[in-house]
Amino acid sequence: MSNPANWRTLGAFLRARREALSPEDAGLPPGAGQRRVKGLRRAEVAQLASISIEYYTRLEQGRVRASAAVLDTLIRALRLDEDAQRYVYELADRTDDQPQPTRLRGTAQPAMRRLLDRLEGTPAIVLGRCLEILAWNEAAVALYLDFGALPVNERNYLRLMFLHPGFRALHREWEYDARAALGTVRLESAKNPGDAVLTQLVGELSMKDDDFRVWWAQQQLSGRYEGIKRYQHPLVGELNLDVDTWNSPDGSGQRLMMLSAEPASSSGDALRILTSWHETEHPSHLAKPPPNH
User: Fold this and answer.
1) DSSP of 251-279, one letter per residue?
2) Where is the HTH cro/C1-type domain (predicted)?
3) What angle do CA 26, 9, 47 make, to 5 degrees?
4) What is the 3-state secondary structure (H, E, C) of 122-141?
5) Pairwise CA distance, residues 213 & 152, whole Å
6) Whole-number CA gyration radius for the chain
7) Which of 84, 107, 111, 266 is buried deepest, with most CB atoms within 10 A?
């Protein structure tokens, strides 16, 4: 039987973690002016967890029992480690619903970051299990867009493929690339059918894009990222880039996607011009989130 005293303890814990987390750590812009509260505001946590501020306020006040789905989104929003994950499920009396604790999904693994740092002039992105865009380099910003300018919950490769007009227009073979990305996420859905992040992503895309809704219902499958991607870039024109991926061996499900071209080819020349121009025009551009992002 649920214990309201535990709800109040959980609420106090959530508040403490909220106050200890900076906007930058949570993937939010710091905002202008002096902040009146330590850490994140309630509204910011509610936004990150995709719940109403009224419901989150009741959670902090210990007036309502959190559902397993809400706990999962709060774990991600507040960047809770494995011990904290177990603690909040116990306080909410949801241990039977608790998935296997996992490493933080919103943070690229250290090995991935080291590889990313070495890839100057080569567009590269660290992707999570559901194609969350966890980290990137300057060359990826030059090729695609400024991921750091997007709200953290919109930094998803599949979401951008279907809902971002500029990202979509960049792909000369958009349908092929979109179906491949969709198939990769479907494979993940078979491994983790109750995943709250995936459920929310699929629900949003099904409502907002007819192609996604139809293709998802067709049980599209694909786990391949290797091959060639063909782009039409507004600054340098056609780019035919080889795609290679490196899967992290630590069980996190993260992968590093790299795009390159033969140095002496027209695409190689265009890519070099594009990245050089970006470095000249944006010398202080923050392409990658800070380490605790």
Assistant:
1) SS--EEEEEE--TTSHHHHHHHHHHHHHH
2) 35-85
3) 30
4) CCEEEECCCCEEEEECHHHH
5) 23
6) 20
7) 107
CATH architecture of 110-281: 2-Layer Sandwich (3.30)
Asked if residue 133 lies in contact with residue 127, where contact means CB atoms within 8 angstroms, the answer is: yes
How many Cβ atoms sit within 10 Å of the Cβ of residue 50? 16
Give me the architecture of the 4-97 domain, per CATH.
Answer: Orthogonal Bundle (1.10)
- What pLDDT score was predicted for residue 188? 80
- What does the pLDDT look like over 25-83, one tens digit per residue? 776 665 544 566 678 899 989 888 888 999 999 999 999 888 888 888 888 888 887 77
Question: How many of the other CB atoms lie within 10 Å of CB of 201?
Answer: 20
CA-to-CA dists, residue 39 to 11, 61, 136, 191, 196, angstroms:
16, 18, 25, 35, 25
First to last CA, the chain: 37
